[in-house]
Amino acid sequence: MNIKPIRNEKDYESTLQRVESLMDAAPGSEAFDELEILTTLIENYEAKYYTIDTPDPIEAIKFRMEQEGLKQKDLVSIFGNKVRVSEILNKKRKLTLDMIRNIHESLNIPFESLLNKYDLPNA
């Protein structure tokens, strides 16, 4: 087992290829140990160079609506009325803490996504 740090894209790509070749390794084997170590190295490299920003709260809500096949009218029970639903989804009004709690409970969207800052276009 010759393991080196991942320092650049070339190292990253070759490590990914090596991991792919080890995917069928039997637990407890030397190959499996190598797989675990390389996976950790890849995760660290990706966390440093391939960070994915969480979406703004409104995009997270719209994405969940799409996933669940929901329409704006389906969110009235969460926001209170259809005008407020429209204002929120069109970024004319900010989410309140109570709305965030309701969205989290009703749509199972993580608080981390709902608490991100976002701008209102005309504010």
UniProtKB/TrEMBL annotation:
<dbReference type="InterPro" id="IPR001387">
    <property type="entry name" value="Cro/C1-type_HTH"/>
</dbReference>
<dbReference type="GO" id="GO:0006355">
    <property type="term" value="P:regulation of DNA-templated transcription"/>
</dbReference>
<protein>
    <submittedName>
        <fullName>DNA-binding protein</fullName>
    </submittedName>
</protein>
<dbReference type="GO" id="GO:0001046">
    <property type="term" value="F:core promoter sequence-specific DNA binding"/>
</dbReference>
<keyword id="KW-0238">DNA-binding</keyword>
<dbReference type="InterPro" id="IPR039060">
    <property type="entry name" value="Antitox_HigA"/>
</dbReference>
<dbReference type="InterPro" id="IPR010982">
    <property type="entry name" value="Lambda_DNA-bd_dom_sf"/>
</dbReference>
<feature type="domain" description="HTH cro/C1-type">
    <location>
        <begin position="61"/>
        <end position="114"/>
    </location>
</feature>
